Amino acid sequence: MRVREKGDRGVVQSVVLFLGVSVLSGALAAGLAIPFAGLAGFTTEKTSETLQDLPQQFDEVPLKQKSTILAADGTLIATLAEQNRVPVKLSKVAPIMQKAMVAIEDDRFYEHGALDLKGTLRALLRNQSEGSVQQGGSSITQQYVKMSLVEKANTPEEVAAATAETYQRKVTELRYAIAVEKQYSKNEILEKYLNLANFGDGAWGIEAAALHYFQVHASQLTLPQAALLAGLVKNPTGYDPTNNMKRAKDRRDVVIRRMLELKVISATQANAALKTPVVDPAKIRPNKLGCANSKYPFYCEYVVAELTKNPAFGKSETDRRNYLKTAGLTIRTSLDPKIQAAAQKSIDEHSKAGDSAAAAITIVEPGTGLVKGMVQSRPYGNKKGQTSYNYNVEKSYAGGYGGFQNGSTMKAFTIAAAIQKGFPLNYKINSPNEIDLTRKKFSTCNGTTESFDSYTPSNSTTNVPVPTMIQAAQKSTNTYFLLLSQQVGLCPIAKIAQSLGLYNAQTGQPLDQVVSMTLGVGYVTPVQMASAYAAFAARGMYCTPWLVTAIKGPTGKSINAPGADCKQALAPEVADGVNAVLHQVMEPGGTGSKLKFGKSDLAGKTGTIQGNRAVWYAGYSSKLAAASVVADASPPYVDLAKLTLDGRKIRDASGSGTAGPLWMTAMENALRYYPATKFTAASDKTVRGDVKDLPFVNGMSPEDAANKLRQAGFEAAIAPGTVNSEETAGTVAYTTPRQRDGAPAGSTVTIHISNGSRKSQPQNTPRPPQNTTNPPAPPTTINPNCPPWNPKYPNCGRR
C-alpha cells in the first residue's frame, strides 16, 4: 500500500473526477449518501457556482482536550472535559489499529484523493437500488471534514447544518476535503481523524478509547481490540459494548472479516481474534468527569470557581468554564492529601452524614496561604443527607454557603487592635458579670455608633472580677472585651479584620462596626477564619487563600498562574503579642486547655454565637492554622442543643466542647508531618505596652480625679458602687489600671470610690513611735512616680 505524500497528483485527480462526475450527473458528488433520485434539479451550473464560492483553505478545528486538576503531590483530583480526549501522534497508535480503521472505513484511502470514485459509485448504486441511504461513500478525509465541522458548531442549528443530508452540504464537505488533501499528508489526515473520532461511552480519540475500554495505551492495542474500536466510529452509541455486547461483537467481527478479505491479516489471526471476548467489563474505566466525581468534590469546585474568575481564560464565566473543559490544561493545586486525610479523619470521628448539625474544617499554611485541606460532614450530592453547598467558602464562589456568624473568634482582632494601640498584655478592666451598654456610643471609622435601647450583655463563663487581657482571653470574658473595644474604638478592629481577609461572606461587604462587634459580627467562613489566624502564626504576614500553584498547557508549556499573595498586615511585634495572649487560652485555666497536644506552641480562640446556632474553634501553630465550625445550616436556624452531631444530641454546644474536638483531631494528625515549633516571644515593650504615666489621684474627690486624668490625656469613668479601702469614704480608692501600671494615651481609666471600711484611724492622729531597735520594714507601697511596667523605669521594684 503506497503512502501518497501531500501535494502529488492525487489532489488534481480528485478535482477532475469531481468535475467529471458533476457533469455526468448534475452533482453526483452531492449524492454520496442520499438516493439518486434526489439529484434532480441540482444543476452543473449550480454546483460550479457553489464550488467557486467555497474557500480554498480548511481551518483546522482545535481538538477539545480534557483538563486535569491535581493535588500538590500530583495525584488526580478531577478531570474536566467536554470530550474525554488525549491526543497522540500516529507513531503512538498501534499499526494494527491504523490498518483496522482504514480497512473498514476507506480501504483505498492511500490510493485516492479527496474523493474515492469507486466507493462513491458503489454507494450511489446501492442507495438507488434500495431507495434509501444504505451505504456511505465518504472517504476518511471527507469524514474528518464532517467531524470537524460538527466540532466547530456552537449551537444546535450549526450542528444540524453540518450534518444535513443536502447537496450543498455534500459539495461543501468535498471542497473542504480537497483543501485538506492539499494541506496534509495521508498519515497526517489519519492521525487527525483518529484523535477527533467519537468511540462511544464518553471516549473521544483513540488514546482515550484504548484506556477506557481496555486500560492500555493506543500503542498497545491488539487485533481484536483494534477491530472493536474501528467498528465503533460508524455508530458510537449503537455499537458501544457497554450498551449492547452482542451488537458490539457482531460489528467487531465484520471489521475482522473485512481485514481478512483485504489480506491485511491471515486466516489464523482472524480466527483467533473472532474467538476473543469483546471486552472485560471489569477493565472498562468509568469516565468520571467533573468535580461531582472527584474524591474531593467541594475543594474541586472551589478551585474551578477560582479559575473561572481569571479573565485570561475568556471574557465571560461561560467562556472560561468552556476553556477549562477543552484546553487540555494540567492544573496543580495546594491540596495536600495527607493534610486532607487528617481533616477527613476528624470529620469521620466526630460526625456522621445523617447529623442535623453541619461541621466543616479548613486548614491553611501560614506564610503562603496554601489551602492544604478542606472537609465537611455532609457529603456531596442531591440526595437526603447530602448537599451541594460548600460550608467552608464564601457565597461568591459557586456552591459557597456564605459562612456563619463567628462569635468570640472576633476577640482576637480586638486583642490585635489593643496591642497595636499600645495596651499592655496585663491591661485590666473592671469586668462585672453584666454591664449596661444601653445607648452607649462607640467610635467607628465614620463617627460613632450607638447600642440598642436596651443592651445589657453578660458573661457566659466564670471570670476574674478585674482581669488582665490575658485572663479575659482565657475565659472569653464578654464584658471585658466590650469595654476594651470601646476604649480601642471599632475602627482599628474593623481595619485589622479587613486587612486579614475578613468581610461578610454573604454580601462581600465589610463587617459592620456595631457595639457588639467583638462578640461576633456578620458571616465569615472557615477558610477566611483559618487564613486570618494564620497571619498571627506568620507574625503578621497575611496571605490570601492560595489554591492554584501551577498551570500547564497541552504541550507542557507553563501558563501564568497567580502565586502567593501576601502582605505584612500587622507589625511582627503585634502578632507576637496576640500569640502570647491566645497561647494562654490553650494553657491551664483557658477555655481551650483541653485541646492542647504535642510539643509545638499552640494558640486559639473559641467562638459561640447568640442562641448557640454556631460554634467555632480557630487555632494554629507556626506551621498550620485551622478553623472548625459546627452549625445549623438548615433554616429556620435553632440552638445546636436541639440538633445531633456524631449521631447523638449535642450536649455541650460550645466552641471548646463541640467545634474544639474537631479542630484538635484534625490538627493533631496534620502536625505529625511537621517538626515541633515555638512562637517568637513577645518583646518587653509589647508585653508592657506603650503606656503613659498615670497621675496619682488616690484620696481625691471623684470629680477632681476625673479632671486630673483628662488633663493628663486619658478618658475617665467612675465605677458604680464603692470598694473597701483605707481612703476616706467618698474619695478615690484606686484606679483601673492602677497608677503604678500606667495606661495607653487616650484609654479609659476607671475610678473606684472608697467606702472607708479599712480606715483605722483619723488622718491627723499622730503615728506611734517607731521601733528604734529593729530596722524599718521595706515599703509595702509602690512609688507613684516609678511605675514598674513602664520601660522608662527599668530599675523600679515592687514587692
Automatic annotation (TrEMBL):
It catalyses: Preferential cleavage: (Ac)2-L-Lys-D-Ala-|-D-Ala. Also transpeptidation of peptidyl-alanyl moieties that are N-acyl substituents of D-alanine; [GlcNAc-(1->4)-Mur2Ac(oyl-L-Ala-gamma-D-Glu-L-Lys-D-Ala-D-Ala)](n)-di-trans,octa-cis-undecaprenyl diphosphate + beta-D-GlcNAc-(1->4)-Mur2Ac(oyl-L-Ala-gamma-D-Glu-L-Lys-D-Ala-D-Ala)-di-trans,octa-cis-undecaprenyl diphosphate = [GlcNAc-(1->4)-Mur2Ac(oyl-L-Ala-gamma-D-Glu-L-Lys-D-Ala-D-Ala)](n+1)-di-trans,octa-cis-undecaprenyl diphosphate + di-trans,octa-cis-undecaprenyl diphosphate + H(+). It holds the Pfam family Transgly. It comes from the Bacteria. Keywords: Carboxypeptidase, Cell shape, Cell wall biogenesis/degradation, Glycosyltransferase, Hydrolase, Multifunctional enzyme, Peptidoglycan synthesis, Protease, Transferase. One of its GO terms (molecular function) is penicillin binding. GO terms for biological process: cell wall organization; peptidoglycan biosynthetic process; proteolysis; regulation of cell shape. Residues 765-791 have a biased composition (Pro residues). Residues 688-755 form the PASTA domain. One of its GO terms (cellular component) is outer membrane-bounded periplasmic space. Residues 747-760 have a biased composition (Polar residues). Residues 735-799 are annotated as: Disordered. Transmembrane segments: none annotated. In the C-terminal section; belongs to the transpeptidase family. In the N-terminal section; belongs to the glycosyltransferase 51 family. This is PASTA domain-containing protein. It comes from Kribbella turkmenica. The lineage of its organism: Bacteria, Bacillati, Actinomycetota, Actinomycetes, Propionibacteriales.
